[in-house]
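Blackboard transcription, Thursday session:
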Amino acid sequence: LPLRFDWRDKHVVSQVRNQQMCGGCWAFSVVGAVESTWAIKGHPLEDLSVQQVIDCSYNNYGCSGGSTLSALKWLNKTQVRLVNDSEYPFKARSGLCHYFPSSHSGLSIKGYSAYDFSDQEDEMAKSLLIYGPLVVIVDAVSWQDYLGGVIQHHCSSGEANHAVLITGFDKTGSIPYWIVRNSWGSSWGVDGYAHVKMGSNVCGIADSVSAVFV
Amino acid sequence: TWPRSPEREAAAFRESLNRHRYLNSFFSHENSTAFYGINQFSYLFPEEFKAIYLRSQPSSSPRYPAEVKTSLLTVP
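(Written on the board underneath:)
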């Protein structure tokens, strides 16, 4: 493994978004992974519609909550084509699903994987390198007050309540950490990102890890 | 879902300041440890923050199997 790796350096990670008062973190993380995986395959990086996933993923609860695995299962099963964010913009509230004709351009996924990588975070880092940014769920209760630095304490594994996207890792310093994109705007944390210690399943970051294939 | 008022926000803010002191009082000697303070969520009580922003449902996944372990050397 390299000492440091961040998919942002390859220009395949879209800008940090803001979920506002909508509990749609699960959709933001999944859509972020699809965007990046598509760009890694050589296509232009584009913002895809989070609102489409919030409105149309019938096995979830829109802005009232949802599961990343359910969203991935829905994307894979229905082969829904995600459209551009500009065509189906974010409204920060759940709405009726807007359907597009089959001739309409969009991006569907070819599959996904989901594993528990606790005690195997080096393998998780390899997956990040191979497949692209990873969708994870964490205990983020203490993230309400996070300003910066490496999160090492004040959260638990097995208490997941928030979905985010890992874009890289950094092992160059004394404390190796995951680079985690959040969806609370760029003014939160480190330009919208959190740093979470690697190797100890801090905040349950390795408990449920998904990769998307496009 | 909660009535917002300047008094309630001020109370939540005061509680936040106490929480920051608590969170920063541990492990501050450790290298690079996280630090906590005022941000856009400081006017929310923790239960409000949780109800609005922490809406991801937990899910369990199978353990990553040893036989799937991929050598980076085999990846172009």
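Lecturer's comment: The two ends of chain B are 52 Å apart (CA to CA).
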